[in-house]
Amino acid sequence: MATTFTTPLLIFYIFLMLDSISISSFSCPLHQKQALLHFKTTLAAIHDSNSNSFQSVELNSWNPSSDCCTWDRVVCSTTTAITELNLYSIVPESDNPVLVFSDILTPLFHIRSLKLLDISNNQIAGRIPSDGFGNLTQLVHLDMMLNNFNGSIPSQLIQLPNLQYLDLSVNPLLGKLGPEVGSFRSLTTLRLGYNNFQGSIPRQLFEVKSLRILDLSNNFFQGVLSSEVGKLKNLERLYLDENFLSGNVPDEIGNLTKLTELYIKNNQFSGRIPGSITNLKELEILDLSNNSLSMQIPAGIGRLPNMTIIELSKNQLTGPIPSSIQNLSKLETLRLQHNNLAGDIPTWLFNITTLSGLFLGGEGSSLMWNNKTDLVPRCSLAQLSMTSCGLSGKIPKWISSQKELDFLDLSLNQLEGRFPDWLVEMNISGIVLSDNKLTGSIPPPLFESLKLQLLALSRNNFSGELPENIGNAGRLSMLILSGNSLSGQIPMSMSNMYRLQVLDLSRNRFSGDNISMFGDIILPYIDLSYNDFFGNIPTTFSSETLILSLGGNKVFRRAAFKFD
Ligand SMILES: *[C@@H]1O[C@H](CO)[C@@H](O)[C@H](O)[C@H]1NC(C)=O
Ligand SMILES: *[C@@H]1O[C@H](CO)[C@@H](O)[C@H](O)[C@H]1NC(C)=O
Ligand SMILES: *[C@@H]1O[C@H](CO)[C@@H](O)[C@H](O)[C@H]1NC(C)=O
Ligand SMILES: *[C@@H]1O[C@H](CO)[C@@H](O)[C@H](O)[C@H]1NC(C)=O
Ligand SMILES: *[C@@H]1O[C@H](CO)[C@@H](O)[C@H](O)[C@H]1NC(C)=O
Ligand SMILES: *[C@@H]1O[C@H](CO)[C@@H](O)[C@H](O)[C@H]1NC(C)=O
Ligand SMILES: *[C@@H]1O[C@H](CO)[C@@H](O)[C@H](O)[C@H]1NC(C)=O
Ligand SMILES: *[C@@H]1O[C@H](CO)[C@@H](O)[C@H](O)[C@H]1NC(C)=O
Ligand SMILES: *[C@@H]1O[C@H](CO)[C@@H](O)[C@H](O)[C@H]1NC(C)=O
Ligand SMILES: *[C@@H]1O[C@H](CO)[C@@H](O)[C@H](O)[C@H]1NC(C)=O
Ligand SMILES: CC(=O)N[C@H]1CO[C@H](CO)[C@@H](O)[C@@H]1O
Q1: How far does residue 457's CA lie from ligand 8's centre (Å)?
Q2: Atom 11, ligand 6: which residue's CA is nearest?
Q3: What pLDDT does 558 receive?
């Protein structure tokens, strides 16, 4: 039996070997090899002239005696020509930025067979070489993100007939986008985020019907969003966030039925949220926060089955939380705070099993928490914020069922009673209970948590002394306790809190003459004002201290101090 199998197996292996030989036998045309070697030499010269400022990049395989199709970062096609150059991050970041000008790319423009060119993250400065790119007519994929290209987008780039993917994000490109952007032929991805483009979004861009991803975020675009945006029928993701766009969100946005992500946050859009968004059946992320949108949230928003993130905070939306939201079986984040929403906070919110972030209330909100002591949540929240929601009585016990909770903000309510032991045990990173009517002392076990980073209890009526073990909260970076009735000395252990960034103990009854220890820890913000401290002021404060407030205490012996 063995021999009968040997022969076919052998032939199979021979085929395999032939196959691998034929792959490596491609060799790039000599002029392409020379172009790459020229590029390497230029890069090496820049490296040499900056030898101290950064490590040289491994282009060791770019060896004149070998076939350039075998080189790292180079891909050839079966027709023996270079088709891909993956030259991302070849100029590493350093403290001493190296000046690499865009003419370093010149040799690459002789490689006319290029389909993919990735030169991202290289700090290349200067204008985008227009004629050079105009020659790379085979280009399909061009990634130039994270460089220092300035000036505008050359029309030669826009006219590349085969270009499908263009990423110019995170550069200092500027100027207006002209009507020529309508000339992109087969572009599916256009990323222009984090540049300095200005002016309006030209309606010609909405003629590029092949677009699937359009990212214009973090620029200075202004004016209205044309209703012609609805022509981009293939669009799956639209990022317009962080611009100065105004006017209405056009109804035609509802024509983009393939949209999965819509980001228009941090603009100046006004008017209502178009009801047509309920046509966007594939929508997963809707972020309209921080605009001036008004009127009610479209009632049909819950008819979008794949919705996972809804962010509508910081607008002027009115009316109730639409009941259809309870049908969103994939909802993970719901941010509605800082609107003019009204009505009861529905208990069904806590039945959405996928929900992990819920943010309600805030400035302008009239949403009310009706004493729901018997709530049995089915969700498992990681973040819960219900500020100014009319919570009264004790801190609701059902919160203890939220085993994943990591951030809790119940500020600006009328909560009473002591800091609950169950809340201490929850081991939460951020606790904000400011502006309530809580009383009693701050429980010492709270400071045994290695997770606690933010504790804000301002303007309650906590009393007693700071626990001696406070310094054990080794990750605490913000401790904000102003406006309580806390008293006593500052515990010695606080001088170990080297992560502390913000310390506000103002408007309490702390006393003692030994606050000098704060001179030794790096603390950008310290407010000890309106207490009963007396005695020596620390004579030196860390150079990191930006704000120091000591007013409203007893007379200090030393009036002047210095920062080092
Ligand atoms: C573009 O960058 C080059 C190289 O850093 C610089 O010399 C030139 O002044 C810049 N041009 C503009 C308009 O910023
Ligand atoms: C582009 O092509 C033209 C015409 O073939 C040629 O004259 C020019 O030198 C090329 N430019 C670059 C930068 O390769
Ligand atoms: C809201 O948007 C404005 C610009 O419209 C911006 O200046 C501000 O920082 C944004 N606020 C937040 C909280 O992001
Ligand atoms: C929702 O997501 C699922 C899974 O990703 C997908 O199969 C489906 O087509 C999406 N769209 C709708 C409308 O459910
Ligand atoms: C939730 O979906 C079901 C089934 O599609 C529907 O009958 C019901 O009316 C929806 N509920 C709300 C509040 O929209
Ligand atoms: C939440 O779910 C529980 C258990 O399925 C159910 O008994 C209760 O009626 C639901 N509450 C709301 C407000 O939908
Ligand atoms: C909420 O209900 C509980 C139990 O019924 C009660 O003890 C508490 O005082 C109520 N709180 C308010 C503000 O009505
Ligand atoms: C609190 O969380 C930290 C970090 O996740 C963990 O190391 C610690 O054991 C937890 N403590 C308690 C009491 O759960
Ligand atoms: C705060 O608590 C103290 C006792 O700890 C009490 O004397 C005082 O009246 C309380 N202040 C307020 C505003 O409730
Ligand atoms: C401050 O003085 C008190 C009483 O003398 C003492 O218990 C405490 O340890 C001192 N704290 C520091 C930081 O020196
Ligand atoms: C083809 C299509 O769906 N057109 C719609 C685009 O959006 C406007 C405004 O919502 C509708 O009136 C069109 O019917």
Answers
A1: 22
A2: 348
A3: 46
Judging by DSSP bridges, how do beta strands 74-76 and 82-86 pair with one another? Answer: antiparallel
Residue 238 identity (one-letter amino acid): L
What is the atom index within ligand 2 of the atom nearest the CA of 135?
1
Whether the pLDDT of residue 18 is over 60: the answer is no
The two tokens of residue 340 are: 């003019």
451 Cβ closer than 6 Å to some ligand 8 atom = yes
pLDDT score of 249 = 97
Rounded distance between C-alpha atoms, residue 326 and residue 460, angstroms: 35
Ligand 2 atom nearest the C-alpha of 132 is: 13
Close Cβ partners of 64 (under 8 Å, ≥ 6 residues apart):
33, 37
What SS3 state is found at 148?
strand
Percentage of the chain surpassing pLDDT 90?
Answer: 73
**Atom in ligand 11 nearest the alpha carbon of residue 276:** 10
By most ligand atoms within 8 Å of CB, the mutation choice from 348, 350, 355 for ligand 6 is 348
Residue 313: which of 217, 406, 383, 398 has the closest Cα? 383
**pTM given for the model:** 0.87
Q: Answer yes or no: are the C-beta atoms of 133 and 106 closer than 8 Å.
A: no
| Per-residue model confidence as pLDDT tens digits over 173-186 | 999 999 999 999 89
